[in-house]
Design a protein that fits this description.
disordered C terminus; Hect, E3 ligase catalytic domain fold; 492 residues; alpha/beta; Rossmann fold; four-stranded mixed beta sheet; four-stranded parallel beta sheet
Length: 492
């Protein structure tokens, strides 16, 4: 008889009950030999909660049972198998279907109505205890917060944890005060504060440069005015902590942040027809709208891939690349109107070289191969179960290879199904657009900016820009048919 010992321990279990892996290993191996096992394999999960089924050791054990290479599973007690009653019953039924016997060291499992009832009750009690532990933990955190202590382990920048309470960390506290002062006194803006802190060499905890999101979160956090807000469910508990800035300073910063948001939302910003669609082929970054000031004081719209936020991993092209927005948008709009004016262009995109038929043929072939692979896996399992094959290295390797091929073919099948569904949807959408082309063409002269922008997004997937200056070339990728089909408006 081939046995498998499943052992699991979490840090909490080891501390509270002394459930070490070594102790479980020895107890399970001894029980397996007592009931007649000739071999005992081991499957272990260390530091993994019993409340989830996503455990590497358990997954390997289940796979071995499905493969028919295990006759007996030995576990210390039902809690080691799972802390949830539903999961315990699911695993028990799964083992039974595979013809695998389940044995516990500290629990007399009997496959009878009484045995099942007792097993279910024990699982229910274990789940109840787990929920009680969770509730006691949350209650303890609430009590700590109400007594002025930190209920969580995460410590905000500028502080350190000492005897359960936040105290100021001098160097970081000075950096916090500097950030508030720069934003309030020098009118740098959030991004300017991040850039200044980085330039001054003020360290972050992660060692990375300061960025806009980090600085904004710091400026808006009430902890620096002396109150840490602990949220649990719908309850908010204020925890007094040492203030790093004056309450008046914090209030003034909030007002300035609110005013900046109000002014920004009220600005009449420039409109960009291709926003969100333009990509720089040279650096791989998306290109966004930007207003450039000319030498004579004028302003011009452009698209650029430069990233000005401090701490961004991708900084865009250097030197900075700008593409004239009027020229790029005019070229793109000319191509869009040409598509609408020439239904044959739509038809060429619709045909797409028989893309749908090709995907359907590939999917049929993969399904055939998958059926054959599954049949091969089943044949090996039946041979093992019937004693026609021994589980030697060669058989184990063959089974592993067959399962790997089955998984690869299944993944390819799902991928092809997604591609085929997308291609069919694209074809259907394109045919609908073909029917509307004439109507759109008649209305082009009356379309407003937002309507033009919406039309561009229906017909254009991406605008790819290469080069700079007078050597800029833009490629318009149609939002029809295959992803590799593109139309070029030419150099601009």
């Amino acid at each position: 008889m081939r046995a498998a010992a499943y052992i699991r321990v979490s840090t909490e279990d080891q501390a509270r009950h002394g459930y070490s892996l070594d102790a479980q290993r020895e107890a399970c191996r001894r029980r397996a030999l007592e009931v007649g096992a000739q071999t005992v394999a081991e499957y272990a999960d260390e530091g993994v909660s019993g409340a989830t089924l996503e455990r590497p050791g358990l997954a390997a054990l289940r796979e071995a049972c499905r493969a028919g290479v295990v006759d007996l599973v030995v576990c210390l007690d039902p809690d080691r198998l799972s802390r949830k009653l539903a999961h315990q019953m699911l695993l028990t039924e799964e083992f039974e279907r595979a013809g695998v016997r389940l044995e516990f060291v500290n629990f007399d499992w009997q496959n009878t109505p009484d045995g099942r009832l007792f097993y279910a009750l024990r699982g229910a009690i274990a789940e109840y205890e787990r929920e009680k532990i969770k509730e006691r933990t949350l209650s303890g955190k609430r009590q700590k917060a109400r007594s002025g202590m930190m209920p969580i382990g995460a410590v905000p920048y500028g502080y350190r944890l000492e005897s359960g309470r936040l105290v100021a960390e001098p160097a970081e506290a000075e950096a916090v005060r500097l950030a508030f002062d720069l934003f309030l006194r020098e009118d740098l803006g959030v991004n300017g504060v991040a850039a200044r802190l980085t330039a001054l060499g003020v360290p972050t905890r992660g060692g990375r440069p300061w960025n806009r999101a980090t600085v904004r979160g710091m400026l808006r956090n009430p902890v620096y005015a002396g109150t840490f807000l602990y949220r649990q469910g719908g309850e908010v508990i204020p925890v007094p902590v040492p203030a790093l800035v004056e309450p008046e300073t914090w209030t003034n910063v909030q007002e300035k942040l609110a005013e900046a948001r109000r002014l920004w939302s009220g600005w009449s910003r420039e409109k960009y027809l291709l926003s969100g669609l333009v990509t720089c082929a040279d650096c791989g970054c998306t290109m966004h709208g930007a207003v450039r000031r000319g030498r004579k004081g004028g302003r011009g719209r452009s698209y650029t891939c430069v990233r000005t936020q401090a701490g961004r991993l991708a900084q865009g092209c250097r030197p900075v690349k700008y593409v004239d927005a009027d020229t790029l948008e005019a070229a793109a709009w000319e191509r869009v109107t040409a598509w609408l004016d020439d239904p044959a262009a739509f038809a060429r995109e619709l045909r797409d070289g028989g893309r749908v038929d090709e995907l359907a043929r590939d999917l049929a072939r993969v399904r055939e191969h998958l059926a054959a692979a599954r049949k091969g896996v089943d044949n090996i399992r039946r041979a093992l179960a019937g004693g026609l094959l021994d589980l030697d290295e060669g058989t184990a390797a063959a089974l592993k290879d067959a399962r790997a091929r089955e998984r690869a073919l299944l993944a390819r099948k799902k991928e092809l199904e997604r591609e085929l569904a997308a291609a069919r949807a694209s074809e259907k959408g394109a045919r609908e657009m073909l029917g509307q082309a004439k109507r759109w063409l008649k209305e082009l002269d009356t379309l407003g900016f937002n309507e033009k922008k919406a039309l561009v997004r229906v017909l254009v997937r991406q605008v790819i820009v290469r080069g700079r200056g007078r050597d800029v070339e833009a490629t318009l990728v149609a939002n029809l048919g295959a992803a590799d089909e593109a139309e070029k408006p030419g150099k601009i």
